[in-house]
Structures are given as structure tokens and as C-alpha cells.
Write a structure and sequence with these properties.
The chain is α/β, with parallel strands linked by helices and 242 residues long. It has one domain: TIM Barrel, CATH 3.20.20.70. Helix content is 40%, strand content 15%. It has eleven helices and eight strands. An eight-stranded parallel β-barrel has the order 1-2-3-4-5-6-7-8, surrounded by four helices. Helix 1 links the parallel strand 1 and strand 2. Helix 5 packs across helix 7. The protein is globular and about 45 Å long. The mean pLDDT is 95. The structure holds 2-phosphoglycolic acid. 2-phosphoglycolic acid binds next to strand 8.
């Protein structure tokens, strides 16, 4: 379990004074590189240069240039950001990121040597109509088609059922284990490599002991619970220091 990763997707939360408080809350813990904070891009410089890893929640699909409000992969890399989350369901559903856009962003991030955390997951409707595996396969195929094994081996997948994000609902351990096994098999079939697969969706300090019993999970992508240092620390303690 030593190599499991805990990634905090802090989303668009916390003001500057709150971030200062947050940083004070985490500075007493000696986290290593298996803990990754993904604050709002505005606050990235405050998190960089410490012992833990840092990720950006989204990157532009283009190189630097006249794209108001966007952040280029090259800019994130130049700030020493380690990871880029790509294809989060909130990006897909609120900002219209299609499979094609996600594919472009994955390639962009990888070409600038950012480690990609590619998010995939089915909606409740897709799950209820038994299309989960079909949807996951489509998302993986579309984002990774034609990519060399060497490149794909540098990225990670976050399996995040859309219906579990921010809802307090979590699939059973068996369901997560089976879905992760499916994702790993697909990636072997498509690209001939083993990749790490994280689980995300309503992970918190109360369910982490149970979730951490899943044998084939390589870590967790934590949203809401990562915005409170003490709550996040309880999760990290279970996953990383056991
Ligand atoms: P949640 O979010 O932990 O608040 O459900 C997870 C995510 O969106 O990555």
C-alpha cells in the first residue's frame, strides 16, 4: 500500500485568507510526493516547492498565446507543477469538454511532461442502463488512441462515477474493484501497459478505511474532503502511512 497516492482536487474553493489558514493547517505534516494538492490555479505558487506534489485542475488545449483566461501546460510546467487533471466530469459537463478536447489536452499535458490524471466515469443514467463499461471504454479509447505505450505508462486514470461526485454515494468495494480491473484490462489491450487507477467520488474520512481495502486501487482523488486540512489529513493517514 506504500505507493498509493492521495490527490486533493480542491476545485474552485477557498479565498486567499482561507488558503493561508489551509497552508498553516498542513505545514505541520511531513507529506511526501504521494500526497498531491490541486488548489485553484491562482494559489499554485503557494503550494510549490514543498515536499508534497502539486497538480493543476485543468489546462488549455492549445499552446501559449492569445487565449484569454486560459493556462498553458508549458506555463504550469515552468512553475514546477507535477500533475494535470484532465477530463474531470465537471469540465466535461459544465464546459462542454468533448472526448476530442480531452484527447487534445492529454497530449498537450504529456508533451510538456506533466503527469496526467485522466478522469473517466459514467453518469447515473448510463449506469442504470448498464452502459458503464461501454462508456469507460469509449472515454479511454478516445483519449489515448494511438499513444505510445511509453507515454501512456506515465499517466494515471481516475475512475470517478459522475453520480458519486459530491453526493455522498459511493459504489460498493466490489463494484470499484471490478471496474478498476476492467479499466486496467482495457489499457493493456489498447496500449499494452499497466497504469495506475485511482478511485474518486465522495471519498471522506469516514469511508476511507473501507475503500482502502480495495486490493487493486492505486489511490484516491478527493474533492470536498480535501478542502479541510484536518479531514484530508485523516484520509492521508489511512492511505499513505499504513
Ligand atoms: P468529491 O469530488 O470527493 O467531492 O465527491 C471528487 C472529485 O470531483 O474529484
Amino acid at each position: 500500500m506504500a505507493n498509493r497516492l492521495v490527490v486533493g482536487n480542491m476545485k474552485m474553493n477557498l479565498t486567499a485568507p482561507e488558503i493561508n489558514k489551509y497552508l498553516k493547517g498542513i505545514e505541520k505534516y511531513a507529506y511526501g510526493k504521494e500526497v498531491c494538492f490541486c488548489p485553484s490555479a491562482l494559489y499554485l505558487p503557494y503550494f510549490i516547492g514543498k515536499n508534497f506534489s502539486v497538480g493543476i485542475q485543468n489546462i488549455a488545449s492549445t499552446e501559449e498565446g492569445a487565449y484569454t483566461g486560459e493556462i498553458a501546460a508549458s506555463q504550469a510546467k515552468s512553475l514546477k507543477v507535477d500533475y494535470a487533471i484532465v477530463g474531470h466530469s465537471e469540465r466535461r459537463s459544465y464546459y462542454g469538454e468533448t472526448d476530442e478536447v480531452v484527447e487534445t489536452k492529454v497530449k498537450m499535458a504529456l508533451s510538456h511532461n506533466l503527469k496526467v490524471i485522466l478522469c473517466i466515469g459514467e453518469t447515473l443514467e448510463e449506469r442504470d442502463s448498464l452502459k458503464t463499461y461501454k462508456v469507460l471504454k469509449r472515454q479511454l479509447k478516445s483519449a489515448l488512441q494511438g499513444m505510445p505505450a511509453k507515454v501512456v505508462s506515465k499517466m494515471m486514470i481516475a475512475y470517478e462515477p459522475v453520480w458519486a461526485i459530491g453526493t455522498g454515494r459511493v459504489p460498493s468495494n466490489q463494484e470499484i474493484e471490478d471496474t478498476i480491473a476492467f479499466i486496467k484490462d482495457i489499457l493493456k489491450e489498447l496500449c499494452g501497459v499497466s497504469v495506475k487507477v485511482l478511485y474518486g467520488g465522495s471519498v471522506n474520512s469516514k469511508n476511507i478505511e473501507t475503500l482502502n481495502k480495495i486490493p487493486n486501487v492505486d489511490g484516491y482523488l478527493v474533492g470536498g474532503a480535501s478542502t479541510k486540512p484536518e479531514e484530508f489529513h485523516k484520509i492521508i493517514e489511512v492511505v499513505v502511512t499504513q
